[in-house]
Amino acid sequence: MVILKLEDLDFSYNKSRTLKEISFTLEGGGLLGIVGPNGSGKTTLLKCINNLLTPDSGEITVKGEKMSELGGRDLARKLGFVPQTEEPVFPSTVFDLVLTGRTPHSSWKPSSDDLTVVSDVLKDLGLEELALRDVNSLSGGQFRKVLIARGFAQEPELLLLDEPMASLDLRHQLEVLNTLRGWLTESRGAAVTFHDLNLAAKYCDELLILKDGEVFARGGPEILTREVIEPVYGVEVEVSKATVRPSITPIRPLAGG
Ligand code: ADP
Fold first, then answer.
1. How do residues 106-115 score in pLDDT, each as one tens digit?
2. Ligand 1 binding pocket includes 15 (Cβ within 6 Å)
3. Contact 234, 257 (CB under 8 A)
4. What is the DSSP letter of 254?
5. How close is the Cα of 49 to the center of ligand 1, in Å?
6. Distance from Cα 39 to the centre of ligand 1, integer Å
7. Helices and strands of the chain, counted as H and E runs
8. Domain boundaries in the chain?
9. CA–CA distance from 155 to each of 34, 61, 67, 212 (Å)?
10. How far is ligand 1, taken at its centre, from the CA of residue 18, in Å?
């Protein structure tokens, strides 16, 4: 089952063409890693998929439905978006904030199913002990995990996560990625932007490598070769293929990169 399909997507900020002819397909159960250097268009791409930005041309469908024609609860049941940053604004417990992820599924009163989903997500992400804390009292990394938990609790068909690993330590990174893998089913997919190529290689089924708003390469983790990484990032790397999934060691910036 195809979860997400992009066909010839173009997007410009004012007159500056930022995404150029982006096409790809994500199958159910799949985790798509979107990688590329700063400014290559990763966040812009997620915002186009999420209807926050309107593409100049091209089509985005989630399970066959055009994103441009969806809104409100229909959109929120289809798609969840965890942005890079979001400030806590009003006092709320961790539990209650994660529970707001259930809004697209609930009536005015949360059901016992909603409460169970939230409890399970908090447990999977190791957030149980923080459940009754005010979100304003959390560290940056803890708060980030809570936002990710809210995305999981929303149970959309497609979950978009923008650099979820930023500000998380190693243990929290693995907890989030393992929870994400466990969360995926044949009828769901996720697209995640990554800076860490090793984590992307280890956890993703598909990678989309962006350079200057274009797809430079696309495929399984095996596409992370020296020939691809060096021109995209302007960095000399060593790539070990001792394991099925490549392991990348950055060496030095390339001259003129
Ligand atoms: P990435 O997520 O890969 O770092 P972005 O999608 O944030 O890249 O940015 C892609 C390009 O679009 C960059 O050149 C950036 O400066 C530009 N850009 C991002 N947001 C805006 C904006 N709101 N207005 C104008 N240009 C923007």
1. 777 889 999 9
2. no
3. yes
4. P
5. 15
6. 5
7. 8, 12
8. 2-253
9. 21, 18, 17, 32
10. 7
**Rounded distance from Cα 40 to ligand 1 centre (Å):** 8
User: Residue 72's pLDDT band (boundaries 50, 70, 90)?
Assistant: confident
Find out whether the beta carbon of 43 lies less than 6 Å from any atom of ligand 1.
Answer: yes
**Band of residue 70 on the pLDDT scale cut at 50, 70, 90:** confident
Query: In angstroms, rounded to a whole number, what is the distance separating the alpha carbons of residues 22 and 7?
Result: 6
Q: What is the b/e burial string over 70-83, where b = at least 16 CB atoms within 10 angstroms of the residue's CB?
A: beeeebbebbbbbb
Burial degree of 209 (CB within 10 A; 0-12, 13-18, 19+): buried
Distance of CA 55 to the CA centre of its chain: 19
Structural fold of domain 2-253 = Rossmann fold (3.40.50)
Q: How far is CA 215 from CA 29, 35, 62, 85, in A?
A: 22, 10, 20, 25
Name which residue sits closest to atom 27 of ligand 1, judged by CA: 13
Which pLDDT belongs to residue 235? 95
Tens-place pLDDT, residues 10-60: 999 998 999 999 999 999 999 999 999 999 999 999 999 999 999 999 999
Candidates 179, 185, 188, 187; CA nearest to 150 is: 179
Smallest CA-to-CA distance from 95 within 116, 118, 113 is with 118
